[in-house]
Specification:
87 residues, two-stranded antiparallel ribbon
Length: 87
């Protein structure tokens, strides 16, 4: 999605502090799934409330956080499942 400034009046409030346009929310759901999108909205809402952080774009903030989490998970060494016996 190309970056363009969306007027806040065209955004919907998710929880108390997270503002996303319908198209931004839909795109996050496509990328992350609805459950994970809702989880990230909760995380961002808590950060905004507890720390008073300000972010230029809540949409891009969620994308960056999700990418960082995925990169960290991808860099973790894989361990065998407990069901797989080690001989």
């Amino acid at each position: 999605m190309p970056r363009k400034k969306i007027d806040r009046r065209d955004k919907k409030c998710h929880r108390e502090f997270v503002w996303l346009a319908e198209s931004e929310y839909a795109h996050l759901c496509e990328l992350l799934g609805k459950v994970k999108t809702e989880w990230w909205i909760d995380e961002l809402n808590l950060a905004l409330d507890s720390k008073g952080d300000k972010y230029e774009s809540h949409y891009y903030t969620i994308q960056v956080w999700a990418r960082r989490e995925k990169a960290a998970a991808d860099s973790q060494p894989r361990t065998p499942n407990s069901d797989e016996g080690v001989a």
